[in-house]
C-alpha cells in the first residue's frame, strides 16, 4: 500500500512495550512464533486473503466514553511490520480495530471503562458527503430520545470464537413472509443452531446457508420485474436498472426477522449498485451465515455486552 499517514514509530513512545512469547495474549493467537529475545511475532490472515505480520505489543491509549476521557495503560495490539495482498480499500486507513468477543478485542480490554457498550454508524457506500463511519463507546453509544430502536438477544457462537451471533426466525420480501425452512440438509449448524447468523461489520456481503439462500433467491426473482441475469464476475443475481433516474425504483424491500426485532432493509441495503446500470443482490450462499455491513448502512447499531443485547435503529449516518 502507498503510505497515507505517518507510520507509528514505537521508538518515539515511552509507553510502548513488546510482548514475549510466554504471555497469555501471545499464546492465544492462532499463528505466532518466537523470535530473538523471545518476542511474540504474529501472522494474521483475513477473509480477503490479505495477511499481516508483526510484533504483539502494548501501548497507553486515550478513549472518550461519553462521560469522560479515560486513559488505559497496557492495551495490547498488533504492530504490523509487513503485509501481503493488501485490500486496496484498506490502504487508506491506518489500521483495523477488533470489536469482537475474543480476549484481544479492544472492547474486551476496555470493557469495564465503557460499561461494556459500544455502537457504530455506517454511512452508505456511496454518499455525496463522503462521510466516514463512527464508533462510539460507553454513554456515547446510547440512543437519542427520538430514535425508535429494537433489541434482540445475542446467542451463543457455538464455540466458534469471537463472533456476535443472532437468531434469525424468518425473512420477508416486501410484506410477505417466506416462512423460511431452517435445518435442511444444506443448512450447516456450524454455530450450534441452524437459525444462527453472525452479525459482522467487517464483512461486506450477507451470506445464507444454501437452502435458505435458494428460498430467498426464488422469492426475489418472482417479485422484481427488471431484466435479470447471472453475473459470473459478481457471482450473484443481477438486474439491469435505470441509470439515469432512481436506480432503486422497482426493487424490493426485505426484512430479516430476529428474535423480538425485525430489521427492515431498503433496496440500498440489499443491492450493490454499479456505474453501468447494473445492480446485484448483496446476498450469497455460504458455509457460515453472516449478516454483512451493506445491510447495516444508515443504522445505529449498539452492542450491550453486559446484558447480551444487540439494538438497532434507522438513522442518517452521513450527518456525523
Automatic annotation (TrEMBL):
<keyword id="KW-0378">Hydrolase</keyword>
<keyword id="KW-0064">Aspartyl protease</keyword>
<dbReference type="InterPro" id="IPR051708">
    <property type="entry name" value="Plant_Aspart_Prot_A1"/>
</dbReference>
<dbReference type="InterPro" id="IPR021109">
    <property type="entry name" value="Peptidase_aspartic_dom_sf"/>
</dbReference>
<dbReference type="GO" id="GO:0004190">
    <property type="term" value="F:aspartic-type endopeptidase activity"/>
</dbReference>
<dbReference type="Pfam" id="PF14541">
    <property type="entry name" value="TAXi_C"/>
</dbReference>
<dbReference type="InterPro" id="IPR032861">
    <property type="entry name" value="TAXi_N"/>
</dbReference>
<dbReference type="Pfam" id="PF14543">
    <property type="entry name" value="TAXi_N"/>
</dbReference>
<dbReference type="InterPro" id="IPR032799">
    <property type="entry name" value="TAXi_C"/>
</dbReference>
<dbReference type="InterPro" id="IPR034161">
    <property type="entry name" value="Pepsin-like_plant"/>
</dbReference>
<keyword id="KW-0325">Glycoprotein</keyword>
<feature type="domain" description="Peptidase A1">
    <location>
        <begin position="1"/>
        <end position="313"/>
    </location>
</feature>
<dbReference type="InterPro" id="IPR033121">
    <property type="entry name" value="PEPTIDASE_A1"/>
</dbReference>
<dbReference type="GO" id="GO:0006508">
    <property type="term" value="P:proteolysis"/>
</dbReference>
<comment type="similarity">
    <text>Belongs to the peptidase A1 family.</text>
</comment>
<keyword id="KW-0645">Protease</keyword>
<protein>
    <recommendedName>
        <fullName>Peptidase A1 domain-containing protein</fullName>
    </recommendedName>
</protein>
<dbReference type="GO" id="GO:0005576">
    <property type="term" value="C:extracellular region"/>
</dbReference>
